[in-house]
Amino acid sequence: MEIYTPKNSIEMIKAQISSRGIKNINVLKAMEIVPRDKFVPKKLAPLAWSDQPLPIGFSQTISQPYVVAFMTEMLELDSNSRILEIGTGSGYQTAVLSKIGKEIFSVEIIKKLSDRAKKTFTELGYNNIHLKVYNGRYGWEEFAPFSHIIVTAASQDTPKNLLNQLKADGKMIIPLGKKPFSQNLTLITKYKKNITKRKILPVRFVPLVQK
Fold first, then answer.
1. What distance in Å separates the CA atoms of residue 175 and residue 31, rounded to the nearest whole number?
2. CA 106 from chain center: how many Å?
3. Residue 99 lies in a domain
4. How many domains does the chain have?
5. Do 186 and 199 touch, CB atoms closer than 8 A?
6. Which of 163, 147, 146 has the alpha carbon at shortest distance from 155?
7. Which of 9, 50, 63, 114 is the catalytic position?
8. Is the CA virtual torsion 184, 79, 60, 161 positive or negative?
9. What does the pLDDT profile of the chain (211 residues) look like in tens digits?
10. Is residue 89 within 8 Å of 58, Cβ to Cβ?
11. What is the arrangement of strands in the sheet containing 129-133, beginning at the earlier edge strand?
């Protein structure tokens, strides 16, 4: 039986995003206007709208659209959000965030991926994104605190530097797990006197690069 592959963002949203419970209007609009095919290798462009992760080189992947939408919706962003993203990767998640929040600060440890994403952002005219080549576990202290943090690679624990850079009443979403490619997407909310953690979805992310 032939597997249905959406041919554009509208088909993707109808078949894979809204149909699976994503309701936030800002998220759906961002997913519609960001061209995922510009963030994957050209040879994989025909699969750009399919609900699957795709390789982007350097043992990294672009996340499946549903996971991008789900993580974004869970953060409850608005037009004033200042967001720290750990793991620029292809830049697709970054671009989706940029269409909702005020400013995006994205950290990537692999320079060639960061440079490639920067080129794509420039070509698409996305100008509220700031990039840094650095170890994501340390965050981006210069511009802290952030209202939201999103980590797009798996960690065995919650990096303390990231928690310290999160505002009070801020939210962080991160894949946590001890086993490679088997984690739980975890929503962390930081209050003035305590922190809550809630496991919300089993996922498989590439590991957060340590060095």
1. 21
2. 10
3. yes
4. 1
5. yes
6. 163
7. 63
8. negative
9. 456 789 999 999 999 999 999 999 999 999 999 999 999 999 999 999 999 999 999 999 999 999 999 999 999 999 999 999 999 999 999 999 999 999 999 999 999 999 999 999 999 999 999 999 999 999 999 999 999 999 999 999 999 999 999 999 999 999 999 876 679 999 999 998 899 999 999 998 988 876 5
10. no
11. 129-133, 103-108, 82-86, 146-151, 166-179, 182-190, 195-203
For the domain that residue 157 is a member of, what is the CATH number?
3.40.50.150
Q: Are 185 and 199 in contact (CB under 8 A)?
A: yes
From the number of C-beta atoms within 10 Å of its C-beta (0-12, 13-18, 19+), residue 90 rates as buried
Question: Residue holding tokens 């659209």?
Answer: 65
| 147 belongs to a structural domain | yes
41 domain residue, yes or no: no
Residue 108 in domain = yes
Is residue 129 helix, strand or coil? strand
R_g over Cα of the chain: 16
Q: Give the range of the structural domain holding residue 114, as residue numbers without chain letter.
A: 52-203
Is-catalytic flag, 63?
yes
| Global confidence as pTM | 0.95
> Do residues 151 and 136 touch, judged by C-beta distance below 8 A?
yes
Residue 34, class by beta-carbon neighbours within 10 Å (0-12 exposed, 13-18 middle, 19+ buried)?
Answer: buried
